[in-house]
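Table S2 (text version). Query chain:
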Amino acid sequence: MLRNYNGKGNDLGQEGAITRFLARELGYDGGSDWAEADMMYCFFFSTMRNNGVSHDGQEFSVAALRDAGGSKMEDRPTYQETFRLNDLDKAERSLLALDYFEERLAASSGPFLLGSDPCYVDFGIFYILFELGEVNNCTDWREKFGLPHLGRLLDAVAAKPNVEEFLASPRRMPRYERANDGKSLYTYIEGKLSPNHANLT
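Corresponding structure-token output:
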């Protein structure tokens, strides 16, 4: 919830509305390509954010990708081929989402989805890729799943000023242990840039 977001005493709720509002205020809404950015955000939210229900769920799961075998790389279908009716497991559905953005990035002048400047969708994808690459998850995801353009996006966002500082600060949402069965108890775990647990208040 953003309290008094417009200076008129009004509060702004809902993750998507807050995200779009902040993107516009901070200049990351895609500019003249705002509608395309919004389209990609809708896809990101319904897949990689599991419609806001969880950071790890039926449509996208870091834990499922962590535990996936190498055979998941071979002959996987596209999102367009599967659409809504499929019998794919969580890892395979997670790869569909990653492949969609890999394809979008391959068609972009890069390194971001809309070209040389990042939009809010790039930051959302970055945060998930950063977690996917943690030492207790899947550090070799670029090679294992054949996603070089997403790797380039990760590096480009990481090189932005203040990003590493934010990731190492208490302002970052703490990491939690992810279970493949969807029963995560949100047990805190440290990561490569997480502040020491004892220093969190």
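Notes on Table S2: Residues 168 and 194 are 5 Å apart (CA to CA). The chain has nine helices and no strands.
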